[in-house]
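Hello,

I think I submitted the adenosine-5'-diphosphate job twice by accident. Can you confirm which output corresponds to this input? Input:
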Amino acid sequence: MNNTSSSNTAASAAPAGRALITPRQLTLALVAALALAWGFLPEFTVSVLSNIGLYALVAAGLVMLTGVGGMTSFGQAAFVGMGAYATAWICTSPTAAAWMGGAVNPALLPWAGLLLGLVFTFALAWALGAVTLKLQGHYLPLCTIAWGLSLYYLLGNMDFLGGQTGITGVPPLVVAGYSLATPRALGVVIWAVLLLALWAMHNLLDSREGRAIRALKGGRLMAESMGVDTARHRVKLFVLAALLAAVSGWLYAHLQRFVNPTPFNLSIGIELLFMAVGRGAGHLWGAVLGAALITLLKEKLQDVLPSLLGSSGNFEVIVFGLLMLFVLQRFADGLWPTLARIAGRWVRPHAAAATDAARPAAPPVQLAHRDLPARGEVLLQATKVSKRFGGLVANNDISMTLKAGEIHALIGPNGAGKSTFFNMVSGVDDPSSGEVRLAGQPMTAKPSRVFAALGLGRTFQHVRLLGARSVAENVALGAHLRARRGWLAAMLRLDRAEEAALMAEARRQIERCGLGAHADTPAASLSLGQQRVVEIARALAGQPSVLLLDEPAAGLRHLEKRALSVLLSQLRAEGLGILVVEHDMEFVMNLADRITVLEFGTVIATGTPAEVQANPRVLEAYLGGADDELLGDAR
Ligand code: ADP
Ligand code: MG
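Support: Only one job matched these inputs. Its output is below.
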């Protein structure tokens, strides 16, 4: 959806005077309170809390998948079923026992079950993800419904899994000699696993890979241009959510001590999705809140409705559905942001600088560094590039070179084919004929992340930023390829030194582009002109040798334009090759070394600004009534 909308709760800073507690302190206090109360809570409450924990674990995976990654899955309950059935089968089946030669200590069987469940889920989720995540729009949710249903029926129809009756006699979990047979005992494990998972995913989101993950929803084209393999990230996110569901299923099987297919059907899958309704901006704690609300609501409805209506029936399903509709209507962004806004009076968002300083100083890490090519070297070369859209020739045999240390401008009336050409030379689209070479390599059929890896940085005509994230985070995404720590390192917080280096680089580029005062504000709250400059900073963070700028001066005020001119001249002096599409003729004429003029997809002139301005064909194209851009708008 609109990724520049600013619904960031962290940004709506509370008045400092009233703030009493940081989110981290609040979390720790709540966890401590729960831990202290655990031994004294009534049996029933403990059992409900354990169920909430199990649901929240699955919902947290869905918050990552749906809320953050933008991929809707109705089929998550099926993965819970896989985790539950794997352990139930291994713990009870004579076949499984025979396979292991009866040599295994019974106390270890549940762990073998966990392993089996994770391996199975991993393989299945990867295969399903690789096939279905390519689908666009509504097809993906529909597809998750399809495989959610198939897995559910499969579980119910396999004789060795007990058919519709399921499997009974699942043993309790045994840890260090203690049998965790009661909800009170196992609940501790459930909540420990949940909190650990929340911590790991919180860390993941606050990392290099986390920034790439956040770009999956609505920013994939942009992320690819920053070097992110978005298809791979989508599959990984899907697998992560599936594994969390499987772990929840494993715990569930040892809590209930029996399994049957019913809890893993589609309607539970839908409920789980409702729990993750803290979707909007994707808040992890929203999963716990959603799980708690829905579990309690169902509990209450089952109690209250029959006595209220005087007859029993499945009324709770109807009332439940209506309530959900109300919630979706009223709190489109999810409940969590609303709650966070209210709590904002007492909870102060932790200041990034303060926590940075509180961290132990990590040894400095060097980001990958690229030497700039020698001045005059050909960086980007287009040879007879054509692009046809059906009968329309948007680009007709365009040849052009860009050298290190020069600014080359591409101008032409609207619809001349400038943006199309940009897409050809940045890997967004392939030419119908002709060839593009970058750093000497033929680039036909290569995706834009390969262009990024070879040193091409770009901005977009229609700004593509993660609006709710800070300017610094947006710019750090540009340096994605200069660091390498992956998901696991991020989850375990082993990436802090590298992360610090990335953020330092981002701040350096922001400073250099004159936006130092805005580094910590959400990108969407900047003016359009400033957002364009953020895009330039993001491109520069990747240390490009080729810079493609699509209308960088649009929306900038006079002084900002001048500052941009100075910056681009400076980059040229450092040896970058810059290709710029721009409408502001005064800006272009003063800045560019060479200009290529397009009309109806064809090059009609190329040369220095003076040559182009004197060219009769150019004058005709611009003055002949087609457009009045060359008349100079010196705003
Ligand atoms: P410019 O950026 O110079 O204003 P564009 O490159 O956006 O021009 O468009 C050039 C021509 O190609 C226009 O006539 C436009 O309608 C057409 N065009 C651009 N993209 C597509 C597309 N994906 N499908 C069909 N026609 C397109
Ligand atoms: Mg355009």
